[in-house]
Predict the 3D structure of the following.
Amino acid sequence: MTRTLVNRTIAAFVLSFFVVTLSAFAAEKKETIKVWGNCGMCKKTIEGALKGVDGVSAASWNKKSKMLDVTFDDSKISAKQIEEKVAASGYDTQNIKADDKAYNGLDKCCKYDRKKS
């Protein structure tokens, strides 16, 4: 009888370990977001807007393609919130236009042609 109880306890522990492990991986998400910009300074600012943000584990912007690859925990931050943080640094994203004041604060070389809206 005791051996059955031990086996069940071990089985329950192993099952709970796998459930916790799988749920941790399920929360990590990768998104590619269009972000307008021009140069290496833009790259630094765009990626810097997400540095240290809770839930964001990686961010890399490509100057040629204008695409930002982001890896994040979607239980802590959403793709929309990520776009809002980038836009707050002065850069338009595919869904959110940066505030004019933030855009005007960019260096001259960073002022990309903005879409009319």
User: Anything to note?
Assistant: Residues 42 and 103 are 11 Å apart (CA to CA). Helices lie at 2-27, 40-48, 79-88, 100-104. Strands lie at 28-34, 56-62, 67-73. The chain has a mean pLDDT of 87.
